[in-house]
Design goal:
- It comes from Paenibacillus profundus.
- This is Thiamine-binding protein.
- Belongs to the UPF0045 family.
- By secondary structure, the protein is an alpha+beta fold.
- The two termini are about 25 Å apart.
- The chain has three helices and four strands.
- About 35% of the residues lie in helices and about 30% in strands.
- α1 packs antiparallel against α2.
- Strands 2-3-1-4 form a four-stranded antiparallel beta sheet.
Length: about 100
């Protein structure tokens, strides 16, 4: 079972104030390519897995923003670390119809 939930909001600074949505789309592609379980929300994306693996995904996301031409990147991250195991489903099951 995964030991962590990590939510990330990535905020790239673009050179000329371009729309950041293509950058965010690329960041989500990095998550998809990693193979970790994730859920996209309107303001952040939550990933489920081993903390060290999820931190590597965040590193790759930031690198991808720079590769696209971002001058810098702010990553707002929330981490729930639970060595005994935790899943997104456990925290949200009571809110599903």
């Amino acid at each position: 079972m995964a030991n962590s939930l990590v939510s990330i909001q990535i905020i790239p600074k673009t050179k000329n104030g371009e729309n950041v949505i293509p950058y965010v789309d690329r960041a989500i592609e990095v998550i998809q390519a990693s193979g970790v379980k994730y859920q996209v929300g309107p303001l952040e994306t939550t990933m489920e897995g081993e903390l060290s693996e999820l931190m590597q995904v965040i590193e790759r996301m930031n690198e991808a923003m720079i590769e696209l031409g971002s001058l810098n990147v702010i990553s707002q991250v929330k981490i729930l670390y639970m060595p005994s195991g935790i899943t997104m489903d456990e925290l949200t099951v009571k809110y599903r119809p």
